[in-house]
Amino acid sequence: MRDAKRQGGPVVEVEVEPGLCMNFRNCVRIARGAFMTDPKSGKTRPARWQQVEPDLLWKAAWSCPSGAIRFVTEEGYVVPRWDEVAHWESARHRGAAAAPDQPLETW
User: Fold this and answer.
1) What pLDDT does 79 receive?
2) What is the C-alpha to C-alpha distance for residues 11 and 78, in angstroms, rounded to an integer?
3) Has residue 100 been placed in a domain?
């Protein structure tokens, strides 16, 4: 897992941007108790995030495909990047890594 200190230090506040939240609920599954679904809007919002380990908060934020989770840290405002995008390489994707004239294998 990435070192939280490289990302701006300890989390002081957690925000979820409702306009970006698509309610995938990755954060709810990863950092149990830190996030919950708002019954009125149907969007995810911060809950008892102070009671969750910081590593789980960061992992939950990195798992958000829409980038709706934002942290305020001692060093400022941080929007963690979606973990899959951060580690994506064309060589790992069969379609992107193939030469244009090379047919893809069938499943």
Assistant:
1) 79
2) 9
3) no
Domain that holds residue 70: 4-85
Per-residue CA distances from 31 to 28, 55, 105 (Å): 6, 9, 38
Nearest to 60 by CA among 12, 8, 9, 25: 25
CB-CB contact of 82 with 64 (8 Å) = yes
pTM for this structure?
A: 0.69
Residues of the chain with pLDDT under 70: 1-8, 82-107
In a domain, 75, yes or no: yes
What letter represents residue 12's amino acid? Answer: V
Q: Of 44, 51, 50, 87, which Cα lies nearest the Cα of 72?
A: 50
pLDDT in tens, 65-95: 888 999 988 888 887 876 555 555 555 555 5
